[in-house]
């Protein structure tokens, strides 16, 4: 650890190697306490030679928000992240909640995995069905607000049903179904206008 801490340039390279953008890296380097914490997290995860950006962002999150009362369990979470068993922000935040309650005490690994959705796979079909259900429930609001509709609110409704769903897949499916719903509504209104002209 000391060889990396000794050189600011090396630390910068380590931060860049986990996929963080230059601006985020520069901010981390200015704050000595956070810089040291982030470096420690990366070393604990054994990812100082680099990783995917999605993994790097989770490491950054751990460095920022991991509960201080359960630091003894941080290496466990980092191994789950490094091995691809924890892959999303909701899973990491669920782990924070779990370890904050447990503190430094012994914990049941099965309960931890269950509380973080480890091993839970949400299929594309499940995401599609959940988004359709939310759109059916919120159809009036969506059609009133059209393109101004708050997509984050729709995402949160879907996450209630599937908290471990992949956020990118969810967002893509919401965009597809939103476009489809708005196009169908526009066509329907166009047909209605033509009928009204014929009647007039």
UniProtKB/TrEMBL annotation:
InterPro entries: Gln-tRNA-synth_Ib_RNA-bd_N, Gln-tRNA-synth_Ib_RNA-bd_N_1, Gln-tRNA-synth_Ib_RNA-bd_N_2
Keywords, ordered alphabetically: Aminoacyl-tRNA synthetase, ATP-binding, Ligase, Nucleotide-binding, Protein biosynthesis
Gene3D superfamilies (UniProt xref): 1.10.10.2420, Glutaminyl-tRNA synthetase, non-specific RNA binding region part 1, domain 1
Molecular function, one GO term: ATP binding
One biological process term in Gene Ontology: tRNA aminoacylation for protein translation
Domain Glutaminyl-tRNA synthetase class Ib non-specific RNA-binding as annotated: residue spans: 13-167
UniProt-listed Pfam families: tRNA_synt_1c_R1
GO cellular component, one term: cytoplasm
Name of this protein: Glutaminyl-tRNA synthetase class Ib non-specific RNA-binding domain-containing protein
